[in-house]
Amino acid sequence: MPTRGIGRLWKPVVNVTDLDEGERFWSALSGLSPTGRHGDEGGDRYSSLEDMNGGDDDPWLLLQLVPQDQDSWIGGTHLDFWVQDIPLAVRQTEDIGGTIVKPPGHYPSHSPYLEWAVMRDPFGNLFCFVKWPLGQEARTPPADRAHRPRNE
After folding, report:
1. What is the Cα–Cα distance from 15 to 62, expressed in whole angstroms?
2. What local confidence, expressed as pLDDT, does residue 151 receive?
3. Buried b (16+ CB within 10 A) or exposed e, 123-150
4. Which residue of 98, 102, 111, 122 is most buried, as measured by CB atoms within 10 A?
5. For residue 97, how many other CB atoms are within 10 A of its CB?
6. How much is the pLDDT for 145?
7. Which one, of 12, 141, 117, lies nearest residue 64 by Cα?
8. What is the pLDDT of residue 23?
């Protein structure tokens, strides 16, 4: 019997040290196409890969630019879960054995467009809770491509 989870699995996030090479490799591996880059004050930090002929609920990947020395980067490839209420999701996850790595906050600090928190499961795996876009009051994550940051 299915259970209602704390959050809805939204997307895998893959750490890369070069967005161009990441797009080339992950596109060839997955069959998904780069659809745009976005970031913050520091420049492009993310690239979305999607099925250009797919529907709104088709799989997609988010490539995340990290430092060359990935040993200095906390985390790795991880899952993002979309939730309506970040602090509530954090409390519920602590109740089932998860721990906080990064408390709830907004990103980026200047003109934020999402709220997020980083958690750790009982086995040491990191995952994120994300509420995006801010102000979204729907009960499900944004599925249509118009809600994903990208350069057109």
Report:
1. 9
2. 37
3. eeebbbbbbbeeeeeeeebeeebeebeb
4. 98
5. 10
6. 39
7. 12
8. 94
Which distant-in-sequence residues (6+ apart) come within 8 Å of 6 by Cβ? 81, 83, 89, 92, 93, 96
Instruction: Find all residues with CB under 8 Å of 111, minimum gap 6, and list them.
Output: none
Please tell me the distance from the alpha carbon of residue 59 to that of residue 151, in angstroms, as a whole number.
19
Look-up of token digits 């879960």: 81
Taking the C-alpha atoms of residue 118 and residue 130, their distance in angstroms, rounded to an integer, is 9
Give alpha helix (H) positions in the chain: 19-30, 86-95
CA distance linking residue 64 with residue 115, whole number of Å? 17
Q: Profile the chain (152 residues) by mean pLDDT over runs of 10 residues.
A: 79 89 91 90 87 81 83 72 94 94 92 92 87 68 44 35
Residue carrying structure tokens 């993310």: 46
Cα–Cα nearest to 149, from 64, 28, 24, 84: 64
pLDDT of residue 2: 63
